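Minutes, project check-in
Item: structure for the 431-residue chain
Input as provided by the requester:
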Amino acid sequence: MSTQAWIAVAIFVASYIAIATDKIDRSLVAVVGATIMLATGIVDQGSAFARIDLNVILLLAGMMIMISIVKRSGLFEWLAISAAKATGGRPILLLITLPLITAVTSAFLDNVTTMILIIPITLVIADTLGINPVPLIISETFASNIGGTATLIGDPPHMLIGSAANLSFLDFLTNLAPIVAIILVVFAVIISLTFGRELRRTAPKTAALASLTPKKAIKGKYLLWKSVGVLAVVFTLFVLQDALGIKPATVALIGASLLLILSQLPPREAKMDSMGVLLTEIDWPTLFFFIGMFIMVAGLEAAGVIAVVANLVVNLTRTHLLLTALLILWGSAFMTMILSAVPFVVATIPVIQSLAAQGVGPVEPLWWALSLGAALGANGTFIGSAANMVVIGISNRSGHPITFAEFTKRGLPITIISLVLSSLYIWLRYF
């Protein structure tokens, strides 16, 4: 490789390490790394900006706006409390029901938002019943990563993959939902065996559950129905996006616009927050993190590094697509466990695109392998995804610390079993 290529690699690896160690804000690292790529002339501004995938950025922004409005209705609290009441407070049923709700919710929201909404409610339910919340919290975290695997919008790496490979919401649903359903069933059995005994040690105060009322969780009846209606429209548009010829970002922006308008119109219980307030709730650091990563990968591509990596993969697998898919599946899971998914996925996408350009064969199975590995690998360690880190932070602050060792002890077996099932699924369905 040329000197410029080595400089590009050094910038990217240094940024990657800084992101993985979590000592410096990851958005700052990505922006600084991108700036160095531009300042050193590794990639020119025009080429770099052209590589910023606005379909991903605007999809994320649109979903963030919708979620910030929907959560004001109390919909998510209502779901969790209703589930707790339905189980009668029995820990083993809670251990299955709450993670299942989390998995389904994560398929249609991003993982981080789901966990921010679910974990505080879980803490309240556990405190009311007098049981240890940690098994519930860890199980919900695993379920969130598994459930988010099923759809285009369930996990940020999927948004990247879908945009790069021109894969629709329906493509993700039809290709990944079957294996996700199988993994969820196996997951429910595993957590029942591993956590069930632990939860049975303390008799729950089931009578106290009467103090939790689902209706009281609803903060705005009219906003609730408006939210449900718009979410139904958005889901329908995601399913029909191919037939309608629209991109996911357009669907998200339609949903955000509709909900913004409807939330300001009567009937309503109280004045809705202004657009300025709602915009402050967008996770801007995450958006700039993605922008920075796009520019850094553009630098690697301009310096010829991506082509070298693609040739290395071809030489290792000798263009054997099944072997390549399994290498990507397990490799992406391993890298996600030790570094986090998004940076690895951003760097891997051009490699698969380069393999396609070399004519190694139909590469769609490689996209599904990358999707499964990056999403399911997040359960291996708590640095595997931003959602994991959010959960650990909330749990620790609530007085229920979860250590790296405990998370990995519980999560690694689930990750390995999930990857074995995914390997069989890829082999049987695509080869």
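Outcome recorded: The mean pLDDT is 85.
No further action items on this chain.
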